[in-house]
Write a structure and sequence with these properties.
Chain lengths: 495, 221
């Protein structure tokens, strides 16, 4: 199994090198192969992660890392397939070869950095991994070189870098806390810090935790550090938006969870849970309100990501094992649902040549396959049964009601319902409401031809929906074991 | 009576104070070129502090770190940014809504808050007086003010780089023993970030023909 871990850490990087130098067709094939094989490796590693974990050199896989690697690998696989269809539409344009090379190399590097960030052992290496995800994704946001894209990329790189500067300060303070127990020469290994537990000095650990939540939380899109997120998600090319939302936010939240584990072991559960609860509720509240009044379909989905990161923070803040297991299931389900929704929105935006919700009407008539798929994807995202997000949110709320923070569970239900309303209304309008009105015809909606995108862009959505049904109806036994083990690690049960 | 501080404590504290003063000078200056030069001076001071700590407290890894940070932060980064400035043909930093005097007052408040808050943490260091930690946090605070009040890409980037200097200063106080490989990785990461910042500054300049960020208001809501 150790070999699979190494494959996971090496293969996407090999794809980076190949796709940067080879012709676009080869780069495309490498990217798809690397995405699919990485997903295969991540799935094959689930049993090992669920039952004891693995360690090879500076790579370490425990249940928590297993969940996030699986999410990142899934999004990598589906977006690499989607990207084939996405880029095909631009083929033949001037400068395409250069663009495609950059795009494929960037996509592979982005996926590689996210998976490595989850697999490395140690808070310092984790910081380095997350920093690499930032620089790569900032370049990918700017890749279309439009004015909006460069504005979004600048805001993103500045805010995320400053956030990571704060996270670096947190890392250093955590090193100081550890050095009081282990002496100077240790490498911030997570295992060691968890072993030290209550022997770590409390004040520095608290400080490091708050700095990490603010720092990594900036990248995870927690309010009030979320301001870069809607811009970057809306302006990036669709496959990149799907990766940003489905896996990058989760990986940043993974970093927060690592600090949560250490803080919980050192100062007890109350303080770290309160901090997460505060940021989580703020994110949920603001995002639910923004979702209600959005004019741009990609920004709508971006604010929905802020909401889902809020749900994760609140779920872990409850401190109940059921809610923690629900949070980890939510990571997987959100990865599948959000990448699906972005891929669907990408098809709509390309067909109508706009992201304005009010100008996309009657999609069902023009896109008889992909428009209903988009609608189902948004409903899955908004937590309708039988999809995975319904199950995860149900677990989170049930766990919350059973904990000492039942009141916040009620707030969670109210805000999630509000966001549901916003998402469902906007998506239904775009897909179901016909475009026959004179005002819309004057906007050019009627002139849009009936043309489904290639199957390269539809198949990944179908795969995502299948995964969501599987997660919602009957998660495999190994996966359930993985989630249970991960929740135990978050609850202080795992070492 | 309080004990007289040692020469070592005096020297290191003096260097840390100078680091903070250069941060204020960056906030004060209107010329982009001077801002970058002040950043180079600040980086030089941080490197010098690393050498002093390495020599007196016998932490040989810090020599390597100081050399690397000297090469990177005193030479490479300022050179890259100055080259960009030459190409962009811009000189004056974009001023925000505050006057320089108000900016400095706000920065004094933020810096002071950082400096005195650290006192409450009771962090003790083997290698440096804790005063330096307070100063490091003040540098971070003032760099935030710099990024917020200035409205051009160069000032904002230099603000971020100097924030990193503040973090480096803090790491000298509380994490001087951090394994060298990690320190090198942090610096390498900074270099990558600088390249990306530089690239995006160029993209911004080529799109808008200015370094100002005042027009970056299309995306909202």
């Amino acid at each position: 199994m150790g070999d699979l871990l190494i494959v996971l850490a090496v293969l996407p990087f090999a794809a980076v090198v190949l796709s940067a130098v080879a012709p676009p067709a080869v780069g495309r094939a490498c990217t798809v192969a690397s995405g699919v094989v990485s997903l295969g490796c991540a799935i094959a590693l689930v049993p090992s992660a669920a039952h004891g974990g693995l360690k090879v050199g500076f790579l370490r896989l425990d249940a928590l890392a297993g969940v996030f690697v699986l999410a990142a690998a899934f999004v990598y696989a589906v977006t690499s397939v989607y990207a084939v269809g996405y880029l095909r539409e631009d083929e033949g344009e001037e400068g395409f070869t250069r663009y495609a090379r950059r795009f494929h190399a960037g996509l592979n590097l982005f996926a590689w950095s996210m998976m490595c960030a989850c697999l490395v052992d140690g808070l310092a290496l984790l910081w380095i991994g997350v920093e690499i995800t930032t620089v790569v994704s900032a370049l990918l946001v700017a890749i279309d070189a439009t004015e909006d894209a460069s504005e979004a990329a600048w805001k993103y790189v500045l805010l995320a870098s400053v956030g990571l500067g704060i996270a670096l300060l947190g890392t250093i303070v955590m090193y100081y806390a550890g050095s009081t127990v282990f002496g100077g020469a240790y490498d911030l290994s997570i295992t060691k810090l968890l072993q030290a537990g209550g022997r770590l000095p409390h004040t520095p650990v608290r400080l490091a935790f708050v700095l990490a939540v603010v720092g990594f939380g900036t990248k995870a899109g927690l309010v009030p550090m979320h301001t870069w997120l809607p811009d970057a998600h809306a302006e990036a090319p669709t496959p990149v938006s799907a990766m940003l939302s489905g896996s990058l936010l989760a990986v940043s939240f993974y970093a927060v969870l690592r600090y949560f584990q250490v803080a919980r072991a050192a100062v007890g559960p109350v303080f770290p849970q309160r901090v997460l609860l505060a940021f989580g509720v703020a994110s949920l509240l603001l995002a639910a309100l923004y979702v209600l009044d959005q004019h741009d379909v990609k920004r709508l989905l971006a604010y929905s990501s802020v909401e889902h990161m809020g749900i994760l923070a609140v779920a872990v803040g409850f401190g109940a094992p059921l809610a923690s297991a629900g949070a980890l299931l939510h990571v997987l389900a959100h990865a599948a649902a959000k990448s699906n929704a972005f891929m669907g929105a990408g098809v709509l935006a390309r067909t109508y040549r706009t992201k304005e919700i009010s100008r996309i009407r009657g999609a069902m008539e023009r896109l008889p396959v992909s428009a209903p798929l988009f609608l189902v994807a948004v409903f899955a995202l908004a937590a309708l049964p039988p999809f995975g997000i319904f199950r995860s949110e149900f677990q989170i709320v049930a766990g919350g009601l059973g904990s000492t923070r039942g009141g916040w569970a009620a707030v969670l239900v109210a805000l999630v319902t509000l966001a549901f309303l916003g998402l469902a209304t906007a998506a239904t309008r775009m897909v179901v409401v016909p475009s026959g009105r004179p005002r819309l015809r004057s906007l050019g909606a009627a002139a849009i031809p009936v043309r489904e995108p290639s199957w390269w862009m539809i198949t990944p959505v179908l795969v995502g929906l299948a995964a969501l049904v599987l997660l919602g109806v009957h998660p495999p036994a190994d996966l359930t074991a993985l989630l249970g083990r991960g929740a135990a690690e978050l609850g202080g049960g795992g070492r | 009576m309080r004990p007289v501080p040692s020469i070592y404590a005096g020297t290191t504290n003096a260097i840390a104070v100078l680091v903070l003063l250069t941060e204020f000078a960056m906030l004060r200056t209107a010329l982009l070129r001077s801002q970058v030069r002040l950043y180079a001076v600040q980086s030089l001071l941080v490197s010098a502090l690393a050498v002093v700590v390495a020599a007196v407290r016998d932490v040989p890894e810090l020599y390597a770190l100081a050399a690397l940070s000297l090469a990177l932060k005193v030479v490479v980064v300022p050179w890259l940014v100055l080259r960009l400035l030459r190409d962009a043909d811009a000189e004056i930093a974009g001023s925000g809504t505050l006057s320089v005097a108000s900016e400095v007052l706000v920065a004094l408040l933020v810096g002071g808050l950082g400096f005195f808050a650290v006192d409450q943490l009771h962090v003790s260091s083997r290698v440096l007086p804790t005063t330096a930690l307070g100063l490091a946090v003040a540098v971070v605070g003032v760099s935030f003010v710099l990024m917020i009040v200035r409205s051009d890409v160069v000032s904002q980037a230099v603000g971020f780089f100097s924030l990193e200097n503040g973090v480096s200063l803090a790491s000298l106080v509380v994490a001087a023993g951090l394994p060298l490989i990690l320190e090198v990785a942090f610096l390498f990461d900074l270099l990558v970030a600088v390249v990306v910042f530089g690239f995006l500054m160029r993209v911004h300049h080529s799109r808008t023909a200015t370094l100002s960020t005042a027009a970056l208001t299309r995306l909202r809501g």
